[in-house]
Design brief:
Layout lengths: L1 H8 L15 E5 L10 E6 L5 E5 L4 E5 L4 E6 L8 E5 L2 E5 L4 E5 L9 E6 L12 E6 L5 E5 L2 E2 L31 H4 L2 E2 L7 E5 L6 E6 L7 E3 L5 E4 L9 E6 L27 H7 L5 E3 L8 E6 L11 E5 L4 E10 L2 E11 L7 E7 L3 E6 L9 E7 L8 E7 L2 E6 L9 E7 L11 E5 L2 E5 L4 E6 L7 E7 L6 E6 L7
Antiparallel strand pairs: 1-26, 2-3, 3-4, 4-5, 6-7, 7-8, 8-9, 10-11, 11-14, 12-13, 14-15, 16-17, 17-18, 18-19, 20-21, 21-22, 22-23, 23-34, 24-25, 25-26, 27-28, 28-32, 29-30, 29-33, 31-32, 33-34
């Protein structure tokens, strides 16, 4: 009924989109051998279109789209969760214990050299100490994101690196019953080097330089078209809902577990630091993904290239808990990056657990799926764009001093039925947060041109709030903008 009303609302306009136009993006599953590991930790695409993928149980395989066949490139890695293809004979893998270059030096199609680039980050043996990446920066250095440990299990007798006995001695972390110690350790903790940090690794020497601090489970890093670095994180303790951060060197992003690794740290146990002090120190998220509606577990952000439809220059990000890819619309306001998110693909044959994304030649997006015994799925998918007209969507949503400006992909006579509400999330040590201070927002619409409208709010904009729209004229109606900065405000 809403769709019918929206069509009628702009039926008098010129050059309008046909009702219920089909999607120009097609999702196809990739074939796998029966019984093979299909939990994908990383994917990258060669210039000729062949796809390297690494898998949870330690294999690297190469997929040939021409023949729809797989070949084994390497085995024996430990939980690889990211891959960068340097050439058809060399890839760089981030696995649990190290950053590794895996090479085929004799040309037989199988790796025969495993070269450590760096293993100078700490490991306690806790199951939650994942390592994500790698991403290569403009100087050739590798960027890796490191998970904190979880109080869902203890640590091992053998630990790599120094162990920080902040608040609790090392022996306490061996216990099986965490009820006695978790309030002192925290739900997630960092007791070995760089856990909860994003680090840079020198490609030649392997030397580690910390870039940013304050992360929980940053399962996804990526650059935008301006070379700005982003990292996703997951809802949990100190995360009211899942965020996307614009990463700037030296900054703290809210989870206190990694504070001991910051320069000039004063030695207090992280949980002893008042929330008010942490609030002053932290850098807020560029985007909040509302939990339960937009994304429960966002993954890898990736730039949309030319040729994959009308949204080139924006970004996409995967989602673990449902068959969805989300589109990101970023902007800079008062020197701060913030923006909006909207579903891009829902269902359409896409499995859930969209863990990794990589673009290849001929307008192809490859997706790798995993679950790691949590929410998600398995396998890989190929998403192609056929060049036809996309359905009606919100093309951009930007902030103004008194509200927002929305541009639709195709002309409309009126915005149709629109609902708008605002809400925020708590910053606290508890797991997640309900929506707080939620209210409906009244506004006056103002038409700018055949595709663009201003949404002039009747109440002042609220910083550090989400504004959630429902546009009946759009194929994906829900669009959420996270306000950090307001234009014109110092």
């Amino acid at each position: 009924m809403i769709r019918l009303l929206s069509i009628l609302a702009f039926a008098s306009g010129a050059s309008l989109l046909p009702a219920l136009a089909g999607s120009p993006w097609t999702v196809e599953p990739l074939p796998f051998e029966k019984g093979s590991d299909q939990q994908v930790g990383g994917i990258d695409v060669l210039p000729d279109g062949r796809v390297f993928a690494c898998f949870h149980r330690g294999e690297i395989r190469l997929f040939d789209p021409e023949t729809s066949t797989w070949s084994i490139f390497a085995k024996g890695l430990q939980e690889p969760l990211g891959i960068h293809a340097e050439s058809e004979s060399s890839v760089v893998i981030v696995q649990r214990p190290e950053l590794t270059r895996v090479s085929d030096t004799d040309g037989d199609g199988k790796a025969d050299r495993f070269q450590k680039i760096s293993d100078d980050f700490g490991i306690s043996g806790n199951y939650h100490e994942f390592a994500f990446g790698p991403l290569q920066d403009a100087d050739g250095n590798w960027i890796v994101a490191l998970n904190v440990a979880s109080n869902g299990a203890g640590i091992r007798d053998e630990i790599r690196g120094d162990f920080l006995e902040i608040g609790l001695p090392r022996d306490d972390f061996y216990v099986d019953d965490w009820k006695a110690v978790k309030n002192k350790a925290g739900r997630m903790y960092s007791r070995v080097a760089w856990r909860g940090c994003i680090i840079s690794i020198d490609n030649e020497t392997g030397k580690i330089t910390p870039l940013a601090y304050g992360f929980r489970s940053p399962n996804g890093i990526g650059f935008d078209g301006h070379g700005r670095l982003y990292a996703s994180d997951n809802q949990g303790d100190w995360r009211g809902t899942s965020p996307l951060y614009h990463i700037e060197e030296g900054k703290f992003y809210g989870h206190p577990a990694s504070l001991p690794w910051m320069p000039d740290y004063d030695g207090r146990p992280p949980l002893d630091i008042p929330v008010e002090e942490l609030e002053e120190l932290r850098t807020p998220a560029a985007i909040w993904f509302p939990h339960g509606t937009m994304a429960n577990s966002p993954t890898e952000p990736i730039l949309i290239p030319d040729g994959f439809g009308p949204f080139a220059g924006q970004m996409l990000i995967g989602e673990m808990n449902r068959p969805r890819i989300v589109r990101l619309m970023m902007e800079e306001v008062n020197g701060v990056i913030q923006g909006a998110c909207v579903p891009f693909i829902d269902d359409s044959g896409l499995p859930s657990g969209v863990n990794r994304l990589a673009f290849g030649p001929e307008n192809v997006l490859w997706t790798g799926h995993t679950h790691l015994s949590w929410a998600g799925d398995e396998g890989m998918s190929k998403i192609t764009y056929d060049g036809s007209q996309a359905p009606q969507e919100v093309s951009s949503l930007t902030i103004t001093p008194h509200g927002f400006e929305v541009t639709f992909l195709h002309p409309v006579a009126e915005m149709g039925e629109v609902t708008l509400s605002s809400f925020t999330y708590l910053y606290h040590k508890d797991y997640g947060s309900p929506k707080m201070d939620e209210r409906p927002e009244a506004f006056d619409p103002e038409k700018v041109n055949e595709t663009t409208f201003r949404v002039n709010l009747k109440e002042p904009l609220r910083a550090d709030f989400c504004y959630e729209f429902d546009f009946s004229v759009a194929d994906h109606a829900m669009v959420v903008y996270t306000v950090r900065e307001i234009p014109g405000k110092p």
